[in-house]
Amino acid sequence: MKKFALVQLIPKDMRNQESINLGFEIVKNIIKKKGWQVDTYKFGDNIENINTYDIIGFSIFYFTQMLNLIPFLRYNNIEPLCEKRNRKPLLIAGGQGIQNPKPISKFIDVFCMGEAEGVLEYILDNYKDIHILSKNKYLYIPSISEKINFNTSTEIINSEPVIYNKNAMIELTRGCKYRCKFCQYGWTNGKYREKDIELVKQQILYIKNKGIKNINLLSCNLGGYSKINEVLDFCIKEKIRLMNTDMRINEYTEEIAEKLNILKVRTLKVGIESFSEKTRFGVNKNISNNQLNTFIDRALKHNISNLHFYLIYGLPNEKNYDEWFFYMKYIKDKIKTVNRNIRVEFSITNFEPAIYTPFEKSSFIDFNDKHEFIRKYLIKQEELGYIKQPARTKDYKNSHGRLGRKERSYNIGMWLLHGDETIGDILYELNINGIGRSIKDNVYDKIYTLCKSKPYVYQIMDIQNKNENIWN
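Below the sequence we write its predicted structure tokens.
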């Protein structure tokens, strides 16, 4: 039997909890159905008899996990460089974190760009002949290919449910109806598709018959599924508990709110991105203030006790954050009108100009401006009672809600997102043990020192940044 080692480049102890990657599970099932033996590993695993595998495949969920590739290979005595390894074993990689494969193109033989269905089967059938593999336009083969194409499939969704511990996951939709200008997912993941409602019901009953009632209906926008009301009615009937409550504001209708209330959903998470209406429309989010106000009123009316707003600092053309502070007060004043405790959390991420989006050439954020904003933001949170400790004691580690990546982690992220294959020279020389969610200062310093010693690599740091080097 042919053997496949499937590896997640995420540390085993990351956040001290088990994480489930649906794409990883889909890939694993594809390999099994093709009659291969598939063994799964994580970063930090020591694989016995590694040379008995025909293919080693890496699932890269977030782009900084590329930094874990070479440490994993060396720990398991695998030659990192393709030219020296001669495709024995064949190394392939894919996943949402492979927006830009070029930084690790010296180490991976074949990249699956976009969805795995179709292209992975092609690899398994033809893995011994790299030239036959190169005929599939959705496979990026650095030694042969020039152009990178994403597999933007239009196939129907028939993925199997995933059960983990006492919970389960069912894929409901794939792709996105909306094309926000900052989000790569809407531009590279193909046409928006929905799983057939009857298949969804069958999978819910299958999971329930296993004694599990906690289900995550995986969707970019839960409320956007065309049969969502029918799904919610079915969940009410079968006494299912919904685990995910990510909702687009304009899709949280009165009818959906009533059904979520019956299901005892008490948490809503929404990506508002900015509290500035002008900024939202400028990035194609297209949510009006009236829709936002209606959402807040409706959530409070239907017994929501946890409201979580996702925000992005540094979106193009957003210079004034007064409207953010206005809405923080507006929400607090609304809460005072209801007689119950309501937790509100604002999680901030940094704007990252993702490639393949209309904003890919936008400037990186200015951290001097961000630090000034964060001070004002935390003081306002203290004034309004969102945080109890003095704002001056709050920072990235202990803030109520996330504040986004620190400057050094952000810089390295942009280095990976926008750099070319010459970055591979730095990664090959870099002596680290791998990273988790954040990048430590000593890793940053090592990368910076190595870049300074290689002018041709150092120059690529200038990309899309107003001629200012990101290390500054």
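The two ends are 53 Å apart (CA to CA).
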